[in-house]
Amino acid sequence: MVRPLTSIFTVICLSLFALTPAKADPDTDVKAAYAAWDAAFNKADAKALAAFYTDDAMFLPASHDVIKGPAGVEKFFSGLFGMGVTGHKLELIEAQGDGNMMVGAAKWSAKGKDAKGADQPWGGVATHVFEKQADGSLKLSVHTFN
Questions:
Q1: CB-based burial, 63-88: b 16+ in 10 Å, e otherwise
Q2: Is-contact 109 123, C-beta < 8 A?
Q3: Residue spans of alpha helices (H) in 60-120
Q4: What angle do CA 104, 107, 108 make, to 5 degrees?
Q5: Cα–Cα distance between 9 and 64 in angstroms, integer?
Q6: Under 8 Å CB-to-CB from 70, ≥6 apart: which residues?
Q7: CB-based contacts of 85: which residues, under 8 Å, 6+ apart?
Q8: Whole-angstrom Cα distance, residue 86 to residue 111?
Q9: Does residue 60 contact residue 68 with C-beta atoms inside 8 Å?
Q10: C-alpha span between 83 and 112 (Å, rounded)
Q11: DSSP reduced 3-state for 121
């Protein structure tokens, strides 16, 4: 069941890339959102990270859980910080959007621990759907990564 949902989500995201009219430079907005998100992560501040998500956000981590809303996001990242995960970095692959909604694809990396507690690099790719807020900031309505 997870594989078909992942495939459907991927098709939706790719469709958004193809069908969303281009904004003058969505890269700038998404890069700024990524920098702020990374800064909160690298302070191990789960509450600050949760503030980057809309009230009805859907967070789909590599664990295959379906997490909804800022409270669930905060709990997830509190667990990661408790495991000693640090050094998160998002590197933009591509961003597109119409000003009110933007989609970003990124490579991510972090420093985790292996089963013996030794440092181990982690990484993968992520997809983010942002909604522009009344104050001009971007909040995540969908976030998934592997």
A1: eeeebeebebbbebbbebeeeebeeb
A2: yes
A3: 69-82
A4: 110
A5: 13
A6: 50, 51, 53, 55, 57
A7: 110, 111, 112, 113, 122
A8: 5
A9: no
A10: 8
A11: strand
β-strand partners of 89: 109
Q: Is 139 exposed, middle or buried (0-12, 13-18, 19+ CB in 10 A)?
A: middle
Compute CA distances 138 → 1, 37, 86, 110, whole Å.
Answer: 31, 11, 23, 23
Q: What is the pTM of this model?
A: 0.81
pLDDT tens by residue, the chain, 146 residues: 555 544 444 444 444 454 444 444 899 999 999 999 999 999 999 999 999 999 999 999 999 999 999 999 999 999 999 999 999 999 999 999 987 999 999 999 999 988 888 889 999 999 999 999 999 999 999 999 99
**Tokens read off for 100:** 């009110």
